[in-house]
Amino acid sequence: MNPPLQDEEIACDWLPGLAPLLAEPRTFGATRYVQPQAGEHLPCREGIDPKHSHAGNLPPMETSPDSNLHPIDVVSLAVKGYRGIAKLMLKDLEALPEEAFTNPFGPKTRTVADIVYEVNLVNDHIGMVIRGEKPFDWPEGGWIKAPEDLDSKQAVVEAFRVSSDRFGETAESFSGAALCEPFDTGEAVTTRLERIRFATVHMWYHSGQLNYIQTLIGDDVWHWNS
Q1: Contact 107, 149 (CB under 8 A)
Q2: For 192, which of 25, 43, 130, 148 could close a Cys bridge (C-beta 3.0–4.6 Å)?
């Protein structure tokens, strides 16, 4: 008989997007991760004793002398993933020249300011939702365009820094249990973890656009790798 969940533990669905990576058990450092069976849940609070990692309806998990088996630390996974792309994107922004921020390459192309402004809007909107605040209405009418006050590299970089730091602090403020528990946004039932994951993926998407823009102006250096 499996032990019941403890007060400090919670069972939640397998993290979206990771299942294809774990068709077979994978070891990262000293931690071994496995994919639960269909319909099962994985405890997702940090600090759960490995011998109790079959909490809820999971079968017992085997450990080996050279590999510990742990439930995923979702706080670390979510926050570090987000902080990582924010740091990478900031390096790319700081490496771009002034003219790239507001000068389009054609009548339909977006500027760096446009792209960063959209990223900030998404992060600010999601941050308000997961904090339980009433978010602003999303602007309609096609591609998001930067406002007139984002008219320089300094203004764009600083706006990104403020927005991304605020979102990171919001993500860090929740426990693993709070990240995994379902909540109703008014439009759908989701989890804070899923919303943080979306913000992270969205930033990766636009990070690639920044890298492409830098190559258009003759820069092929991997600034994010410095």
Answers
A1: no
A2: 130
pLDDT bin (cut points 50, 70, 90) of residue 203 is: very high
Domain end call among 16, 49, 72: 72
- Among 27, 43, 72, where does a domain finish? 72
Task: Specify the amino acid at residue 47.
Answer: G
99 close to 214: Cβ distance less than 8 angstroms: no
Rounded CA Rg of the chain: 21
Residue 139, exposed/middle/buried by CB under 10 A (0-12, 13-18, 19+)? Answer: exposed
- The dihedrals phi and psi of 31, each to the nearest 5 degrees, come to -115, 130
Measured distance CA(90)–CA(92) in Å, rounded: 5
Question: What's the pTM value of the predicted model, to 2 decimals?
Answer: 0.69
Q: Look at the chain and count its residues.
A: 226
The pair of structure tokens assigned to 64 is: 């080996």
Q: Count the helices and strands in the chain (H runs, E runs).
A: 6, 7
Domain count for the chain, please give it.
Answer: 2
Asked if residue 93 and residue 40 are part of one domain, the reply reads: no
Q: Is the pLDDT of residue 18 over 50?
A: no
